[in-house]
Hints:
single chain; alpha/beta; 2-enoyl-CoA Hydratase, Chain A, domain 1; 2 domains; 6-stranded mixed β-sheet; 4-stranded mixed β-sheet; 10 strands; 17% strand; globular
Amino acid sequence: MSFENILVEKRAALAQITINRPKKLNALNKCTISELHTAFDTLESDPAIKTIILTGSGEKAFVAGADISEFSNFSMEEGKRLAREGQEKLFDFVEQLATPVIAAINGFALGGGLELAMACHFRIASENAKMGLPEVSLGVIPGYGGTQRLPQLVGKGKAMEMIMTAGMISAQDAKDCGLVNHVSTQEELLPLVEKIASKILKNSSVAISAAIVAINANFKEGIDGFDAEIDAFGGCFGTEDFTEGTRAFLEKRKPNFPGN
């Protein structure tokens, strides 16, 4: 895959997407959002890829926000369309991927950048990272799912404070409030993410995909998460991975999951 604003690398069952606009601190524009959608969609369709890492190029930013110059003159209807199309094309799309996506936050993750990180299945940050949703300082609110996913991760009160003050929090503060899972040095960020990814790769990709569906169901209006879990749990019994996993357990050996 060849892109203008992102890099895609495959290493066996692991893929890495790097947002590569260092002069713009990896800010999201329409082209980058479209390229990210294409990359994620392509990797999701590749049966060899079992985990995806998302990060930013350089040592300053994961994604420092959206490219404000693209929408500073938008009308209300254009603003609604921008948010809806962006959520559908990238943010909701990533959250609902069957392939696990880990955000490696290597610097500033602000506005749309933090929203993109929150759409990933979980997050790991370098100790120099700063995170926030500064949109109200521009006279607007987060429009790519920030008002919904941030309270899910850190709680309503903390999310209200972060959004209303438009302030940034440190990587350690983000870990303390549950926004990120781990904090490492800049140098150890990707090795740590790869180490965690290697643990994921040992398990059933079919079961992991079912778990993603069940977990996400708890946060969708009108859907009973427990029913979704029951359906996903039962579905696992019809897979070759379940047959192999249970057989390996009974035979006291490591499983060799076929991935179906």
